[in-house]
Write a structure and sequence with these properties.
Elements lengths: L13 E4 L2 E4 L10 H5 L2 E9 L2 E2 L2 H14 L8 H14 L10 E8 L17 E8 L5 H6 L1 E7 L14 H12 L4 E6 L2 E5 L3 E6 L2 E4 L10 H12 L4 E3 L2 E2 H6 L2 E6 L3 E8 L2 E2 L7 H19 L4
The chain binds pyridoxal-5'-phosphate.
Length: 303
């Protein structure tokens, strides 16, 4: 097929799969793909504002770390990744809203081998898939009221710093939260609050913003790092520090962060109000700083 954008594709998302751009309904992978059989792959989610990717080098570095973590070579150079993702954003421009905010999803699996075998196959070609979808602006109701969260035992494996597609524990945890009418599960391991099922965790205590230090127990979130950077740049006190469960429960504010949800105030934890039960003053400051940062990305004044 032609790789040129076609008018008839305007209603359907275009994806990138193994070297080709094509409509999502035509994109297929073999059932022998190890991503399908074993969850043997890694992924990234990258927001783009006004068609510009936020912190692409950071996301590509984390992708590299994830690939190193599963001992899979990176099939593409950083320049090639950028070119593919920018073309994808362009091809899906017509589907995005007037702001042209989109979320890119990319995935690399160990590829497809004839025989199902846990051992790495020899000479297998990784599967590379990417897509972009419209990224809606944060829901104003969340800024007004915040979200409910529940705390749950962290049942995940020991390499949570790898952004692996093997997300069954996260799926089960998020579903449990949903069934308890909560929008996120905050995961507790060895008495410490670690992160959400698909987000990082911040609390505010004595006027200081705190987030757990990085390690194999959590995903090093790009939004998390940006929040710490913005705090430092704008003179807000912030530190990386373990959050024992008891401190989580007495925090003045709780936030969760992720690329697609941005910074979300948690106003109820396990049925009890966090602080006064409304989004807190430091959340308001930080979310304004984050909004300004996104605008700078839109203008091309920040990445
Ligand atoms: C388990 C987990 N932690 C943290 C994050 C936040 O990472 P980022 O800010 O890079 O989106 C995510 C994102 O999906 C996640 O799945």
């Amino acid at each position: 097929m032609s790789n040129e954008p076609r008018d008839e594709d305007a209603g359907e998302a275009i994806v990138y799969l193994n070297g080709r751009f094509l409509p999502v309904s035509e994109a297929c992978i073999p059932v022998t793909d190890r991503g399908f059989l074993f969850g043997d792959g890694v992924y990234e989610v990258i927001p783009a504002y006004g068609g510009r990717l936020l912190r692409l080098p950071h996301h590509l570095q984390r992708l590299q770390n994830s690939l190193d973590g599963i001992r899979l070579h990176n099939p593409l150079s950083s320049d090639r990744w950028r070119a593919i993702l920018e073309e994808l954003l362009q091809r899906n421009r017509a589907l995005a809203g007037p702001d042209n905010d989109q979320s890119v999803y990319l995935q690399v699996t160990r590829g497809s081998a004839a025989k199902r075998d846990h051992r790495f196959p020899e000479e297998v070609v990784p599967t590379v898939y990417a897509t972009s979808t419209p990224l809606p602006a944060p829901d104003p109701a969340i800024a007004e009221h915040g979200i409910r969260a529940v705390s749950l035992d962290d049942i995940r494996w020991r390499y949570c710093d790898i952004k692996a597609v093997t997300l069954l524990p996260n799926v089960l945890l998020r579903q449990q939260a949903t069934e308890r009418d909560a929008a996120e599960a905050i995961l507790i391991r060895d008495g410490l609050a670690i992160e959400g099922s698909a987000s990082n965790l911040f609390i505010v205590r004595d006027g200081i913003i705190e987030t757990p230090p990085k390690g194999p127990q959590m995903l090093p979130g790009i939004t998390r790092d940006l929040v710490l950077e913005l705090a430092a740049r704008h003179g807000l006190a912030a530190r990386e520090s373990d959050i024992p469960e008891a401190l989580l429960r007495t925090a003045a504010e709780i936030w969760i962060t992720s690329s697609t949800r941005e910074i979300v105030p948690v106003t109820e934890l396990d049925g009890k109000a966090v602080g006064d039960g409304r989004p807190g003053p430091l959340w308001k400051k930080m979310s304004a700083l984050y909004r300004d940062y996104k605008d700078a990305v839109r203008r091309g004044a920040a990445e």
